[in-house]
Structure formats: C-alpha cells, structure tokens
Amino acid sequence: MKNEKNRVALTSLIAAVFLTTFKLIVGIITGSLGILSEALHSALDLVAAAITWIAVRISDKPADKEHHYGHGKVENLSALLETILLLITSVWIIYEAIKRLVSGNTNIEVNIWSYIVVITSIVIDFSRSRALMKVAKKHNSQALEADAIHFSTDIWSSAVVLLGLICANFGIFIADSIAALAVAIIVIYVSYKLGKRSINVLLDRVPDDIYDKIKEIVDNIKEVEYYHDLKVRAAGADIFVELNIHVQSKLDIKQSHDISTLVEQKVKSQISRSHVHVHIEPDTHK
C-alpha cells in the first residue's frame, strides 16, 4: 500500500515539474496571460505535489509514544496547505487579468506552441487525475485526493485557456484575460471545497456519512441492548471509533467481551482502516 501511494505521488510530482517548465517557457514566449496563469497554477501544483509526496510518506508511519493516533493528519494538513497555495494563485491571476483588461494591453502572440502546451497539459492532467483518484479511493487518502482534484481542475482551466487562445487567433485578444479570470474562479471553487474538508478533519468534525453508517451497523447487532456516547473522528485515512454498549447483566465477562469483539469486527469489516474501542456496561434497564 505504502509503495503504491508513494509511486503515484512521485509520478505526479514529476508530471508537475514538466508541465510547469513547459507552460512557463511558452507563456513567456507568447506573452499569454492565460498560459502564464496556467504556469503559475502548475507551479503551485508542483509545490502541492511535493507536499503530497512528503505527506503520504509520513502519514503511513505507525503510532508511536508521541503520536498515539498515528500520523494520518499530516495528509489533512498538507491538503490545507494546498488550499492556501491555490488561493494565492487565484489572487495573482485576478490581479493580472483585471490590470490587462483595464489598461487595454491584451495583445498576445499565438503560435503552434501555445496549442501544443495546452493540449499536452490536458492529456497529462487527465491521466494523472485518474491515477491519483483511483489510489486515493483505494487507500482513503485525502492528500492524494486533493492532488487528484488539482490535476482535474487543471483540465478545466486548460480547456478555458485553449478557448481563449482560439479566440485570440481570430483577433479577440481580450478573451485571453477573460479566460484567466475563469481559471481563477475555478481555482477558488476547488480551494473552498478542499479547505472545508481539511479543516473539518483537523477540527475532528464527524466524517460525512460515517457516523450514520456505524449507527446502522450497531443497531443491527441484536446482542447489544442499547448504546451511547458514539464518537467518530478521522485522521488521514484512518477512522477512530469509540462507543459504550450495554449488554444483558446476566452475561459473564467472556460472553460480554465476545459481543464487544463482534461489534468491533462488524464495524471494521464495513469501515476501512477503522480503529474501534468498545466499552461494555451491564444493562440495568430490565
């Protein structure tokens, strides 16, 4: 698992280096704000990919005496850092686009390399986003998912820039700056989604749908008379569950423990990478 996560993160880092360099060179040659904004976007993606690569290497380290819940939140912290980087990108793009639109200095040089770099970017971004999302879902990795969203966002932003280049080729140079603004809006939207999810996990907000799923699992275990104080938190790919269950008071310690083990096994079988702690109490309501 660790090798697969590291491999896909490292491949994405290499792809980000290539795309950033390619876009920057073509953007400088053509003077296209759309391509330059894409180059900056890719540069931030490069930093994000590096953060992701480091995060997945650290997050899978086992718990130790100083980190009792493991190192999983490194992934969530890296996703938050990526959000901040994306917002910085957006501010710069919006500033440059508005400055060009106000000054009227929107002329750019469109050549074959303008189209090659954008189309190449779309192809690479598509392949990387699919590879990253596949591994992210397999291992429940928020850091890899954030990286996948970065690359998938680049697909749409590159498509917008491509449209701007086509318009500029017909003399509608203003389209390039407008395309850059569209890129910024896309980036802001993705930043909001990433940031919200990362902050929720870092603040130990109950993971979406996980709480209800665990309730449904325990509700269907007839040996549990009732339960309370169900608590769920996430840390990277790991889910930590705590709850108190009540069993029939006539049961001995072994029978009660067996029910506790049953609850743990049921939850673990349906919630991947879950760590379950069950406290047993005798049912005194009957």
What would you say this structure looks like, in words?
The chain has 286 residues and is mainly α. The protein has 2 domains: 2-202, Alpha-lytic protease prodomain-like, CATH 1.20.1510.10; 210-283, 2-Layer Sandwich (Alpha-Beta Plaits), CATH 3.30.70. It is built from 8 helices and 3 strands. It has helices at residues 2-30, 33-59, 73-103, 112-139, 142-169, 174-202, 210-219, 253-270; strands spanning 226-235, 238-248, 274-283. Strands 1-2-3 form a 3-stranded mixed sheet. Helix 1 (2-30) packs antiparallel against helix 2 (33-59) and helix 5 (142-169) packs antiparallel against helix 6.
- In angstroms, what is the radius of gyration? 25 Å
Q: How many β-strand runs?
A: 3
Q: Can you tell me the CATH architecture of the largest domain?
A: Up-down Bundle
Give the structural class.
mainly alpha
Shape: elongated
Order of helices and strands: HHHHHHHEEHE
What's the tally of helices?
Answer: 8
The H-level CATH homologous superfamily of the largest domain, spelled out, is Cation efflux protein transmembrane domain
Quick check: average pLDDT?
A: 79
What is the CATH domain class of the largest domain? Mainly Alpha
Low-pLDDT runs of 5+ residues are none
Q: Which terms would index this structure?
A:
single chain, 286 residues, mainly alpha, Alpha-Beta Plaits, 8 helices
